[in-house]
């Protein structure tokens, strides 16, 4: 690693260590994303017909697209899995549109009396932050639940 790169990383508050070329356990979290990052940059360059030398121009857009792509299996973005916190988007919002405005959302039904009851119930969203949501239940009670237990109704 060059001295300039090491100084830049330190100035940004990023710790850097050495690892061996053939045993990169220290880079285990980053390795899967380096290939994804490179392919996304190449695709953006090709789409916008930009020379590869000018790739820095589309870097923030590329990073945002990768960070905001939701994995359907885990219901989190790769950025949230890697850093365990939500990141603001390019326009400053860190919540999806369906969590920003009050209205109906689906909530996981944890307590079911039998297997024929629905897995989700419709609740009314009142307030939200990146981690928790304040909702009104069908029986008119209001409670705070985790964002992880909610989903959009699919209506826009």
Automatic annotation (TrEMBL):
GO terms for biological process: DNA integration. InterPro entries: Integrase_cat-core (IPR001584), RNaseH-like_sf (IPR012337), RNaseH_sf (IPR036397). GO terms for molecular function: nucleic acid binding. Residues 1-86 form the Integrase catalytic domain. Signal peptide: none annotated. This is Integrase catalytic domain-containing protein.
């Amino acid at each position: 690693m060059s001295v300039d790169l090491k100084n830049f990383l330190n100035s940004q508050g990023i710790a850097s260590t050495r690892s061996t070329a053939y045993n990169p356990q220290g880079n285990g979290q980053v390795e899967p994303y380096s290939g994804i990052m490179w392919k996304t940059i190449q695709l953006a360059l090709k789409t916008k017909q930009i020379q590869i030398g000018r790739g820095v121009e589309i870097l923030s857009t590329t990073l945002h697209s990768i960070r905001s792509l939701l994995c359907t299996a885990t219901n989190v973005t790769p950025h949230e899995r890697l850093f365990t916190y939500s990141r603001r988007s390019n326009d400053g919002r860190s919540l999806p549109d369906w969590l920003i405005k009050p209205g109906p959302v689906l909530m996981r039904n944890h307590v079911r009396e039998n297997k024929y009851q629905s897995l989700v119930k419709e609740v009314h969203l009142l307030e939200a932050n990146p981690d928790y949501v304040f909702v009104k239940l069908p029986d008119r009670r209001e409670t705070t639940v985790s964002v992880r237990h909610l989903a959009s109704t699919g209506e826009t």
